[in-house]
Amino acid sequence: MFRTALRNVLAHKARLLMTVLAVTLGVAFVSGTLVFTDTLKKSLSGQSAKSYEGVAVSVTSYGQGRNEEGQKEGEPGLGQQTLDRIKALPGVDTVSGSVSGFAGVGDENGKLIGSGWSNKGGNFTPVKDGKDPRYTFTQGAGPARADEVALDRATADTGRYKVGDKVRVATNGPVKEYTLAGVFTTEDGAVQAGGSLVLFETKVAQELYLKPGYFQELSVAAKNGTSPEKLLADIKPLLDSRTTKAQTGTALAAEQAKQIEKGLSDLSTMLLVFAGISLFVGIFLIYNTFTMLVTQRTKELALLRAVGANRGQVMRSVLTEALVVGFLSAAVGLLGGIGLALGIRSVIGSLGAKLPGGAPVIAPGTVVAAFVIGVVVTTVAALLPAWRTGRIAPVAAMGSAHLPASSKSLLLRNILGSVISLGGIGLVFLGVSKGGDTGRMIMGGGAFFMLIGMIVLLPLLSRPVIGAVRPLLQKVFGVPGKLAAQNAVRNPRRTAVTAASLAIGLTLVTTLSVLGITVGKVVDRMSTEKLKADYRVSMSSDAGSLDKSVAETLAKAPGIKAVSPQSAGYFLVDGDFRAASGVNPAAIGRLLNIEVLSGSLDSLGKGDVAVAEKTATKQKYTVGSALKLTYDDGREASVKVGAIYKDMEGLLSPYIIDDKILSEHSEEMYIPEVYVNVDGGASKAAQQKVVDALGKNPAIKVATQQDMRNEMGGMINTMLNIMYGLLGMALVISVLGVVNTLAMSVFERTQEIGMLRAIGLDRSRVKNMIRLEAVVISLFGAALGVAIGIFLAWAVGSTLAKSMPGYELILPWDRIGIFLLLAAVVGVLAAMWPARSAARLNMLTAIKTE
């Protein structure tokens, strides 16, 4: 029986090719993900360990904390005295302190070099022979004066800077010019990620990023013969355990390796989810293939039963075929996965990100996963067809090979499908009523059962749905159209399984599209309809704070009509921490469209506060209510509520106060953005005036309202395109399923096609019949997927509506139309080979075929 199974695999190579390809794609996706993440994890961990070579103990400061009254306490960092005490310990060789923060370098056109979020600045700290072991200088030396800097080699090469050149460097304040003292190489993660690194003289870096005389981190090297553990034990008593953390360099490298692994796990999980979707879709193709093969070989299998093979032997022979196919698919898929991992690396590199080098890591677990997935998925999908082979009676060797499914089996299937579908729909509505994360989790389970129920019910749905379009097909395409519709529902189970793979893919694509576009429109309205300012000024990294001098500089610049910072701060209100926005009372009403419900924003200029509607309702505030505030510096004040305004989540905090008052009580202000209006309104020339007023600072971005729209739309479109790309694998497998179904359908109907040719159906109309059959099946699956996708998008959107004011479901009919058109194109393309095969059949030979 084993030899028979192997001969059957070899005899049906063409028919099993699509199955092998489908499993190969899924296995390649899984193994490629594992190889890529394992390689990246090893490279980053090795890089992290290398950066801590020579560091026996690392001491990190958490900065100042807050006591129960909300007042800051403790030192802002590790002071020089702490450094000197550690340096005096007998086992210490050297101690170097470091500080870091954002620093941006402009190229010759003033454009920021590197990725904004990974552009860093730090201090050059020579510890021995005038060298800092973290950096290897290829040109010049480290900065020794306040007006000098050093650059990493990649940044220097990009900006075409040489030692002695003037370099324009920006932090969060005005741009400054420094002399380039040296160029270095480093293992620093920011540089390896495609960013830049600027080294300042230590005192300059401390003034920029912390406080004179303080460091954020100390790196301690041990003398020969002193263990890191002994040194750590000696250092800990010298530190305040509430605000500092000390650990060995080895432990720190291991901790960072764990963080790297945790960070990569999210990427790995996302990719594996899409790989799972592809494999799930592939199961339908495998199931369909083996079902059709078993049906076509009914006489052969019955003959085996007649000559003595028992049910178990016949069933095992089919499972053996599945095992061989699965093993072959897994082997090819593993090799494809290695290539896919290298491809992912190249794509990320082409986008500007730098990934550390290293050979691909093929872990034993990856190999095992590839073969287990390939073999198990194929075998599981073939189980039901294999079980059916055991039920073939020997007498079937003398009967027809193509017996329709009994009405009883379809009745049971329809009842089961209805129960599962209704249960899934019920869970979705329950999730809608619950809302929040809990509701969305319940909804996810409901969506899963809905899809399963839909798959079970598809044979029932196929007849009326396809039957409804039969008159149209007959009217437009004549006899080929009528025959195509009849063929599509001739075997409802096969049609259902073929359409199911497309339906699953289109369900996910439609859900993501509707949600993405709807959320994009909501965020767009929230950020721009409430924004009256001509420009928003922010850091290029979109994560840093502007210096307070930015607003001051713009307020003095000619042609500027109104300026207001949007400072983010905190204060205690009757003992509870509350977020506050500091604004310019004289200008904010002209820059933001704030809907005042009671009171007036003019009261902000008198020292009052404005409170958002939801907060005012919850706290029972009205205009004139007295609030007891405790500011960041510990000082207290009694202020009145001067206005109550409609919430502006994403733009303003629940409390608004005069920026001058907030800054008086804060040592460091966090200013994410400054809003600006110019004389004559927004224009290219006006935008350039704002840029020029800020000294053409490469670290600062001046965005128009359209820029903000494009930025938000670009982010959402990028996310959707990534999702489309990942789901594309499932759709490719769906296409293979259509090809396989049609190819085997043509094989089964060889005699019938010969008869149609004999009575006058020419080759072109035979091709049209096969093509239309493919289009009908594809559109049936696509339309069902789109409908379910819209329903799920509505359900998920309902749980988001409460947290997103103005949420309103938007159906992107243009994209939905494209999805359906693509489904029709998929049908036409999938039918090319089967249609050509059907048209080339010799009619006399076909008529004689049994």
UniProtKB/TrEMBL annotation:
<keyword id="KW-1133">Transmembrane helix</keyword>
<feature type="transmembrane region" description="Helical">
    <location>
        <begin position="496"/>
        <end position="519"/>
    </location>
</feature>
<feature type="transmembrane region" description="Helical">
    <location>
        <begin position="722"/>
        <end position="747"/>
    </location>
</feature>
<protein>
    <submittedName>
        <fullName>ABC transporter permease</fullName>
    </submittedName>
</protein>
<feature type="transmembrane region" description="Helical">
    <location>
        <begin position="816"/>
        <end position="835"/>
    </location>
</feature>
<feature type="transmembrane region" description="Helical">
    <location>
        <begin position="774"/>
        <end position="796"/>
    </location>
</feature>
<dbReference type="Pfam" id="PF02687">
    <property type="entry name" value="FtsX"/>
</dbReference>
<feature type="domain" description="ABC3 transporter permease C-terminal">
    <location>
        <begin position="726"/>
        <end position="842"/>
    </location>
</feature>
<keyword id="KW-0472">Membrane</keyword>
<feature type="transmembrane region" description="Helical">
    <location>
        <begin position="410"/>
        <end position="430"/>
    </location>
</feature>
<feature type="domain" description="MacB-like periplasmic core">
    <location>
        <begin position="495"/>
        <end position="690"/>
    </location>
</feature>
<dbReference type="InterPro" id="IPR025857">
    <property type="entry name" value="MacB_PCD"/>
</dbReference>
<dbReference type="Pfam" id="PF12704">
    <property type="entry name" value="MacB_PCD"/>
</dbReference>
<dbReference type="InterPro" id="IPR050250">
    <property type="entry name" value="Macrolide_Exporter_MacB"/>
</dbReference>
<feature type="transmembrane region" description="Helical">
    <location>
        <begin position="362"/>
        <end position="384"/>
    </location>
</feature>
<feature type="transmembrane region" description="Helical">
    <location>
        <begin position="442"/>
        <end position="461"/>
    </location>
</feature>
<keyword id="KW-0812">Transmembrane</keyword>
<comment type="similarity">
    <text>Belongs to the ABC-4 integral membrane protein family.</text>
</comment>
<feature type="domain" description="ABC3 transporter permease C-terminal">
    <location>
        <begin position="273"/>
        <end position="393"/>
    </location>
</feature>
<feature type="domain" description="MacB-like periplasmic core">
    <location>
        <begin position="17"/>
        <end position="237"/>
    </location>
</feature>
<keyword id="KW-1003">Cell membrane</keyword>
<feature type="transmembrane region" description="Helical">
    <location>
        <begin position="267"/>
        <end position="287"/>
    </location>
</feature>
<feature type="transmembrane region" description="Helical">
    <location>
        <begin position="318"/>
        <end position="342"/>
    </location>
</feature>
<dbReference type="InterPro" id="IPR003838">
    <property type="entry name" value="ABC3_permease_C"/>
</dbReference>
